[in-house]
Design a protein that fits this description.
Helix content is about 45%, strand content about 15%. The chain has about 475 residues and is α/β, with parallel strands linked by helices. The strands form 2 sheets. Strands 9-8-7-6-10-11-12 form a 7-stranded mixed β-sheet, with helices on both faces. The protein has a 5-stranded mixed β-sheet with strand order 1-2-4-3-5. Bound molecules: nicotinamide-adenine-dinucleotide.
Length: about 475
């Protein structure tokens, strides 16, 4: 058993990331001390605070971890789950550091977590806990537009981000940049259009890019393109639902969807919005009229398919089920869904794994856009939309005169349109995901790196090294 393994022979989650980091470090020649600094978690704040729930006082356990201060503010989501622990939050914070570097988002990595099960707590009590957690972060200077900026993650969403903002504003009244203390807010509260679906859309862009690389597709016996590819998605939450919708719209076939209570399967394809409606109305995806139930939800991961997208939680593909996974491509929409042992098994089988530190970076990319919007206090497109439309109209007139042809009203509408916020956000996200993909692949090729995960880590670590080298080390 290696020193990184615990008594049961499994790696702790943080050790998993260290293991991936060490594989990448083989391709980097730099002083060992600097690599150790990049790996280490800079600040870990573990807290316990009381909240009155009904007539009882409940002691709540929570965390905020800032993995790296090489760029500020730190950035990372907050998750609500009974599985929250220090090791998990440290790992997720570290992933954020590497992720931000890959997509050129100028933040250090952070993550937060509260050990509660939001499904069993009333919304009033979730609000109390969220507000108290925020005030604890404020007290210790662990939140602020230039310090540390949380976002949604597993078990949280726009509602919680709104409460965090409101609590911050109440305790820091007069701070003109207060909106930038948290991202993933509703649009009416300073959020940016396109944030909610950003992670899922980023997953779609990343996988679409891979599916257009001939040599990769041929290496796993698939045709080029997404149309007709059979996809399985685990987790129909924020990330999984949006990813599933974009894949479905693009002509891919969603053959199975897995949730906590079980999975559903239809070889001919599932209509994602119909399944989501069924889930909303019935509280479960099971018994969807156009599909077969799979009682043991984990078994859905092992079905024959082209692409498997785990979009729920970490460590769902491990040494005990990796050999039974039949997917040719795995897109890590969730953070850390594959353990290092499973990673090695899948690598040997020739499965292409698109790693989390790249694939789910769409969320933080659009969070960055939201943060910039909040600091500039103006909606994207507000200044240039009409100007662009006027210039386009002039341009069209010239074309019509020169060509002696009238352009149809429909075509005109499309050409004249100035950019709206959603157009700018989505094009910024698409460009970021395409660039990130090709940077990883180019590095993989030029250094003959064995897989995308190690190449992504090399790319990311090199960028962080560059940043440390230019900063110097404060005495
Ligand atoms: P979410 O809470 O919105 O959704 C998670 C879904 O997974 C829920 O529907 C839940 O019921 C389901 N689930 C839980 N256990 C399951 C199991 N054993 N089998 C099948 N389904 C199960 O969370 P989310 O925001 O979609 O996050 C999902 C993953 O994506 C997490 O790993 C998170 O860290 C990662 N992520 C999220 C974002 C974001 O912007 N929200 C960004 C980057 C990465």
């Amino acid at each position: 058993m290696s020193k990184n393994q615990n008594k049961t022979g499994s790696y702790s989650f943080f050790n998993c990331i260290e293991k991936n980091f060490d594989k990448a470090a083989r391709f980097i020649s730099i002083e060992k001390g600097l690599l150790e600094q990049i790996k280490a978690c800079n600040s870990v704040y573990r807290m316990h605070f009381p909240v009155k729930i009904g007539k009882e006082i409940k002691v709540i356990e929570a965390y905020r971890v800032q993995h790296s201060h090489h760029k500020l503010p730190c950035k990372g989501g907050i998750r609500y789950s009974m599985k929250v622990n220090q090791d998990e939050i440290m790992t997720l914070a570290a992933l954020m550091t590497y992720k931000c570097a890959i997509v050129d988002v100028p933040f250090g990595g952070a993550k937060g977590g509260i050990k509660i099960d939001p499904q069993t707590i009333s919304s009033e009590n979730i609000e109390k806990i969220t507000r108290r957690y925020t005030s604890e972060l404020i007290k210790k200077n662990f939140i602020g537009p230039g310090i540390d900026v949380p976002a949604p993650d597993y078990g949280t969403g726009e509602r919680e981000m709104s409460w965090i903002f409101d609590t911050f504003l109440s305790l820091r009244s007069g701070d003109v940049d207060a909106l930038a203390c948290v991202t993933g807010k509703p649009v009416s509260q300073g959020g940016v259009r396109g944030r909610k679906e950003a992670t899922g859309l980023g997953v779609f862009y990343g996988i679409r890019e891979l599916c257009h690389v001939k040599e990769d597709m041929y290496s796993v016996g698939l045709d080029v393109g997404l149309v007709g590819k059979k996809i399985i998605i685990q987790g129909l939450g924020n990330v999984g639902y949006h990813a599933a919708s974009f894949f479905h719209e693009s002509g891919a076939i969603i053959i199975a969807l897995a949730e906590r209570e079980g999975a559903i399967y239809n070889e001919k394809g599932l209509n994602v919005s119909k399944v989501f409606l069924h889930l909303k109305n019935n509280g479960s995806i099971l018994n969807f009229p156009e599909a077969k139930n799979i009682e043991n939800t984990e078994k859905a991961l092992e079905l024959e398919c082209d692409i498997l997208i785990p979009a729920a939680l970490e460590n769902v593909i491990h040494k005990n089920n990796a050999n039974r996974i039949k997917a040719k491509i795995i897109g890590e929409a969730a953070n850390g869904p594959i353990t290092p042992e499973a990673d090695e098994i899948l690598d040997k089988k020739g499965v292409i794994i698109v790693p989390d530190i790249y694939l789910n970076a769409g969320g933080v990319t659009v969070s960055y856009f939201e943060w910039l919007k909040n600091l500039s206090h103006v909606r994207y497109g507000r200044m240039e939309k009409k100007f662009r439309e006027n210039v386009n109209a002039e341009f069209l007139k010239v074309i019509e005169t020169v060509c002696k042809k009238t352009i149809s009203i429909e075509e005109k509408k499309m050409i004249l349109r100035g950019p709206r916020e959603i157009d700018l956000v989505r094009s910024g996200l698409e460009d970021t995901m395409i660039n990130g993909f090709h940077k990883i692949c180019d590095l993989k090729k030029s250094l003959k790196i064995e897989n995308m995960r190690t190449a992504a880590f090399v790319l990311s670590i090199n960028k962080i090294i560059d940043s440390y080298e230019k900063l110097g080390i404060f005495p």
